[in-house]
Design a protein that fits this description.
Distance between the termini of chain A: 33 Å
Structural class of chain A: alpha+beta
Largest interface: A-B, 46 and 47 residues
Helix content of chain A: 40-55%
Number of domains of chain A: 2
Oligomer: homodimer
Strand order of the largest sheet of chain A: 1-2-9-4-7
Number of strands of chain A: 12
CATH class of the largest domain in chain A: Mainly Beta
Shape of chain A: globular
Chain lengths: ~240, ~240
């Protein structure tokens, strides 16, 4: 278990613009650990005592239904934060968290965040901004479950990945393996395979391992975004740059 | 257009516990109108200048994809609030809003809320609580789209309605018509009809117009909640009472 510096925390959006003494205090209670793939950080229903920041690797958030089906709620990557919304009554984790790819995770006490949120309005407003953004993403995802085909949902994931990568070339790198990606998109592995084959035919893309090559993004965006209420390129990713 | 009293606003969760002078100021810029079914309050992409509270009737929030499919994001009822999450940059409405059942709507300027959020920590924390709750609901909805059948999704809606009604008897009143309910649950009307028939057979419930009669909620909850990660009764509704 290692200590965390205030400088490392200042890159995380919910700590943006905080005074150095506030950042120092938060950092003094933060710890980072390297966790191996498969490690469970917490289980759905556990009392929520910490929130977490992904420094490297990937974290899978999932739930299991009473009859044993697993749903992947999200897969988190570098600088993503989770558990920070558990600030109020009945603060039990609403999902389980598992390390999906070995990496470094920072953990911080929720009691500190709760205390600071009431004392320091900058933190309350930063949290509000972060959680509002998450809410908008969930709305878009729910819309897509209704309007997009499995093939288009994969296309949407790839287009958003291309915007995040900002390589300027239409080469898209899958951030994690296809099994996990299928689960993240709410698909059975067979559905995912069939849909990916269809997407190759529709767009002329070539897949080499984790790399996807396209001549341009035009065919992919025309095919995918016709069933979305937002025009490509998505503003939330463009504004980030 | 009528004025709104501070007392009327104080019942809305995001205004809970505010000082009387803050409530008076907010109320002084609030207006209420009676709108007829079909009236459009705003269109997806419009610049967001107001947020709204439903005093009576129902409001449908929806999006239209570029190829013309409509997705219902939510249907709001008495004391529900919407548009309050548009506090940050690029504040354009992420969906359209239409009056689904004639009623009274209170409108308030977002610029006031934004100003107060930076000045008044009570409002920032109240907003955070409200938006966190919404986020948890979306996560559960996304889970259900993956794990529950159409029949179970209707069952879940009915069980949650029974908890909200708190009549103590397993008589559930549909809050709005079946066409709108089908759209709210992301189903085609035919899928909804078939799924509802299946639910009647599975649970022995009787439907008379908008009223659903059951001997107990046990059969309905056993059938529905087996494909959910949360045990019946749902805590978020129990804690409200």
């Amino acid at each position: 278990m290692d200590d965390v510096t205030a400088a490392a925390l200042s890159k995380i959006p919910i700590f943006n613009g905080l005074e150095p003494d506030v950042l120092d205090k938060i950092a003094s209670h933060a710890h980072q650990n390297t966790y191996k793939k498969g490690k469970i950080l917490f289980i759905h229903g556990d009392i929520a005592e910490h929130y977490y920041i992904v420094k490297s690797g990937h974290v899978k958030l999932f739930r299991e239904t009473l009859d044993g089906t697993q749903t992947v709620i999200d897969v988190l990557s570098e600088n993503d934060i989770f558990g920070h919304s558990l600030l109020f009554e009945d603060n039990r984790y609403p999902s389980s968290a598992e390390i999906a790819q070995t990496g470094v995770i920072i953990s911080l006490p929720l009691s500190d965040l709760r205390e600071e949120m009431y004392k320091n309005n900058d933190i309350a407003v930063n949290l509000l901004r972060a959680i509002t953004l998450q809410l908008n993403h969930k709305d878009r995802e729910l819309e897509h479950r209704f309007t997009q085909s499995a093939t288009q949902r994969i296309g949407c994931f790839l287009l958003r990945q291309a915007l995040k990568d900002k390589t300027g070339r239409p080469v898209i790198t899958l951030p994690y393996d296809k099994m996990l990606l299928a689960a993240r998109l709410g698909m059975q592995p067979e559905t995912f395979s069939r849909a990916l084959s269809r997407l190759k035919k529709k767009t002329g893309m070539k897949i080499e391992g984790a790399c996807i090559h396209l001549d341009t993004l035009d065919r992919l965006s025309t095919y995918t975004c016709s069933s979305c209420s937002v025009k490509f390129p998505c503003k939330d990713l463009i504004n980030k740059s």
